[in-house]
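Render this sequence as a predicted structure.
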Amino acid sequence: MLVAAFRLWAGIFASRTIVHLINRLQEYWHRCRVLTFSMKTATIIGSGPNGLSAAITLASAGISTTVVERNRQIGGACCTAETTIPGYRHDLGSSVYPMGVASPFFRSLPVDIPWIEPTAPCAHPLDDGTAVLLEHSIEDTVANLDACDGRKYRSLLDPLARGFVELAAELLGPFQHIPQHPVLLARFGFSALLPGASLARSRFLGVRGRALFAGMTAHSALSLEAPASAAVGLILMAAGHSSGWPIVRGGAQTLADALAGHLESLGGRIEVGREVMQLPEADLILADVTPRQLLHIAGSELPSAYRRKLERFRYGAGTFKIDYALSSPIPWAASECSRAATVHLGGTLEEIVASERHFTSDAPFVMLVQPSLFDPSRAPDDQHTAWAYCHTPNGSTVDRIEAIERQITRFAPNFRDCILARSISPPVALERWNPNLVGGDLSAGAMNLRQLLFRPTASLYHTPVNGLFLCGASTPPGGGVHGMAGFHAAQAALRSLVH
């Protein structure tokens, strides 16, 4: 008994000694890395969420980090301004953040992001005066659907919603990694690789379920008949049932400012009003730009073979956006639309498929956000803001104001009576404001199957120029505000310093 006790005690002592030694070695290695990195410099081109995330990652490692931004306002397409009437605050690009609140990087930061979660993530009105809502609860969502679709909806969404934290970590994780949840990932992938229209028709028999899923799939900015267009719809619906579709109190600018504040607390610097025309002097350069801007900045320094690959990168659908200052809430025929910040306007699956096939329909699918219903700071007392956009062919110059407002008044007949002012942003204006929005493409490149796997080239964040990396939404995991592309690019840059 004494011998057994002694052996147990010796084993525990030895284990603790080994653990202590490992901890000391890790601490020593971390100090050596910080000491090494503290003598290095990094310049981040662009202050969008990915640029700021890359900068935070590098500054946390002890690297002297500077962000340079061409505009006078930080945030890239994640910013807010008074574009209609003073006192009415409009999100100029991103506005609703299902992947932001789920982002492993954002969640890891000691930063208070004031998320506001609407009563329901999304509403989809129909011509019968009702609306089908994506609710936080799967059961409440099923109650909106035709009776024949309840079981199928549960079987499709319940596993993804219950495992959404793990699924988000897999989808937003490093491009090359061993899946930690292969069964969940396989369940998602089996449906995600299908065209959105095919999945809607195979899974749902009723008009309401098909319409709801079509609206979700349209966020992909792909034809609903394109392979893998179902993926975005599944992710958004699972997010709605898990972490939600929040907005940020005060607007998108609050998120950018929170990231910038944390960067500055780490010693990082931000310079605005400085457009980069050639590669700056730094040990590391991380560019939160698309391939087109990288060619402008560094084209002469890039090998011809790599330049050709960047030139082959394809951009997605454009965007025609309208910001509204309103005298009252939008008077929806289906009053339940006021429970959601995000409203999808497009009618049935068949209508949305036709609208998104070539992005030229006279009855376009319209995405509308009404943030002031949940965030009074967006407008003066008893006043409101909203924005709406539709997809267009990339770079289209066709005026879409009437087509967009015709879709809004289809489901809110007295909408025009509420309009105090409009601010119009066709594709060319969006690109002029933010060159990353090439032709009005909000995703920094088409999110088709090929460009999801190898984005923008097979080398992903790396370029042939030593110390130069891409870190924007043109790299994995692609579009959306989550900061993960910047984080992964910065990790790749750090690894290059120790190899």
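Summary. Residues 184 and 359 are 33 Å apart (CA to CA). The chain has three domains: 1-37, 41-76+251-314+460-498, 96-248+317-433.
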